[in-house]
UniProtKB/TrEMBL annotation:
Leader sequence residues: 1-26
Gene Ontology terms: biological process: proteolysis
Gene source species: Lactobacillus apis
Domain NlpC/P60 as annotated: residue spans: 126-245
Protein name, per record: Cell wall-associated hydrolase
One annotated GO molecular function: cysteine-type peptidase activity
Amino acid sequence: MKVKSNLVKFTTAAALTITGLGAVNAGNSNSATRHVQAATNKVKINYVPGYGVNIWDDYNNPSFTGERVQHGETVDILSTAVDAKRKTWYQIGEGKWIQARYVVDANKKIKQQNASNTANSVISSSKQVNKVVNAANAVIGKPYTWGGNGPNGFDCSGLAQYVYSKAGLDISRTTYSQVKKGKTVSMKNLKPGDLLFWGSASSPYHVGIYVGDNQYVHAATPAQGVVKESISSYFYPSVAKRVLN
């Protein structure tokens, strides 16, 4: 339905301001904001660096479309709506909606907010690193158990999975899948929490957790159990992966 802009009347909607943009309070899918194209506003996604916000197919009873808009991207707002919980949504395309709380006016400077988000991310990662290292050190001396994933016995990949779970992360169960996590890092630039793998870079047979000071914790052999050892030339890892930032 085409409606000339000078004939559009918002008789029951109240104007409110969300993140510096005019938003219309609409309570149901028949509201003017749902069907009338608004004057285009440009907004910037302001979430967490390196991550994106979900795109939903509607603002009432939304379903995730499988798409995301990355932090820092600029998008056009076609219309505005407010759901039953009074959350404001922006339409960015046909059947594409995002929550207004994750955007700022594209013309506003958001360096300070970005710096805050980055700092929070670093703090969070630092806490996770400490949890991984502490969990690894806590199980030193536990027995090696074939297929063991703790807490009383471990094989190498079961130990890695268990230790990372203590930081709230699921890195899967086998060395073959764990090596696909995170990003590859140089052995000269290891950080506590990095995963060390031995064997093929794509299909390793062993994994350990680097805990700093050139040392790593791993479920070595049935005779040794879980031990802490220094990286040495006679048993040198083939690849290192960083799951934590």
